[in-house]
Write a structure and sequence with these properties.
Number of domains: 2
CATH architecture of the largest domain: 2-Layer Sandwich
Number of helices: 11
Strand content: 15-25%
CATH class of the largest domain: Alpha Beta
Bound molecules: flavin-adenine dinucleotide
Order of helices and strands: EHEHEEEHHHHHEEHEEEEEEEHHH
Distance between the termini: 47 Å
Shape: globular
Number of strands: 14
Helix content: 25-40%
Length: 291
């Protein structure tokens, strides 16, 4: 199928972009890489009358280091992260996450801002940026505001953005030299969306046990989920002391499921998430998933 007709605008400044978006009202949408929006329009699940293309606004593709970390323009593509064309203040987490997104053609056009605004919980950036406690800077003709990514993502394809607002940049704090990160994407084959996505950030004691640990899970619920109960089960231990099966119960609590009430499909999904989190922990400890 093909998308219905629409007006196409390609501004070159931010003021022009926000002005066009405001003028278009509820029937307007911005387009960045088009890797999610165009398929949706072709399926006629979205029928915007006006598309405001952000790729002509040079300011949106600019990234820079800041005293506390880095700020990434919203149209920074996945591939720019992957190939080191955007500064990395996470000691490899951002390029690693980017390299796992879809296929090269998708990564070449798809953008950070577009992925966050699309708010698919099985996508990489929502979970990674939530784990990093990144802040999205948002702008409209009414002004600017800063929104923590954890508060921006409200559910499946739902964000806290107003129709006239666009994400301009995403701010990420520099990881401490002692911080460890690990990530694991469970999917049927490379290039596909995750069935389960685990991100670990934390610090370990000299004996290898996790002292502070933050665990985030994507593709399990309608938005990235912080795993507080699972963190408590991991704290004071190393992955080698924890079989994935030991994580199933705290994971069920984090997801809000009762183990005695769920069917075999939900139990299978829980086991998948437990393996994902365990492999992310092992990655953060510098081991391969099967070591
Ligand atoms: C075959 C295929 C496989 C894929 N696999 C993966 C995968 O494994 N992992 C993954 O994470 N993603 C995957 N994707 C999605 C891809 O990463 C998209 O690029 C991304 O989700 C959307 O970014 P975009 O720049 O293309 O946004 P667009 O498609 O242009 O826009 C998406 C939405 O965001 C809005 N938007 C865009 N930019 C902004 C902005 N700056 N401010 C406010 N709103 C904005 C648009 O209005 C639209 O609603 C895949 C896509 C395809 C087609």
């Amino acid at each position: 199928m093909k998308a219905p007709d629409f007006q196409y605008q390609r501004p070159t400044t931010l003021d022009e972009a926000t002005g066009l978006l405001a003028a278009a009202g509820e029937d307007g949408k911005v387009i960045a890489g088009g890797q999610s929006l165009v398929p949706i329009m072709n399926m006629r699940l979205a029928e915007p009358e006006t598309l405001v293309d952000l790729t002509g606004v040079a300011a949106l593709r600019t990234s820079r280091e800041t005293p506390t970390g880095a700020s990434y323009g919203a149209t920074t593509t996945h591939m720019m992260f992957e190939y080191g064309l955007a500064p990395d203040v996470t000691r490899g987490l951002l390029p690693h996450a980017a390299a796992g997104i879809g296929y090269p053609a998708i990564r070449n056009r798809g953008t950070l801002g577009g992925s966050l605004a699309h708010s698919d919980s099985s996508a990489e950036w929502p979970t990674v940026m939530s784990a990093l406690d990144a802040t999205a800077h948002v702008r409209s003709v009414r002004g600017t505001r800063a929104v923590p990514v954890r508060e921006l993502l409200l559910g499946f394809f739902t964000t806290a953005l107003e129709p006239d607002e666009l994400i301009t940049e995403v701010e990420v704090r520099r990881l401490a030299p002692t911080a460890r990160w690990g990530m694991y994407k469970m999917c049927r084959k490379p290039g596909e969306f995750a069935e389960s996505l685990g991100v670990v950030l934390g610090e370990r004691d000299a004996d290898g046990a996790w002292r502070d640990v933050e665990l985030w899970l994507g593709a399990a619920t309608d938005r990235p989920l912080r795993l507080s109960s699972t963190e408590a089960a991991v704290r004071g231990r190393a992955a080698a002391d924890l079989a994935p099966v030991r994580l199933v119960e705290p994971l069920a609590a984090d997801i809000g499921q009762s183990l005695s009430a769920i069917d075999s499909t939900a139990r299978h999904a829980l086991q998948l998430h437990a393996v994902t989190v365990h492999r992310a922990l092992r990655a953060a400890e510098g081991r391969t998933p099967h070591e």
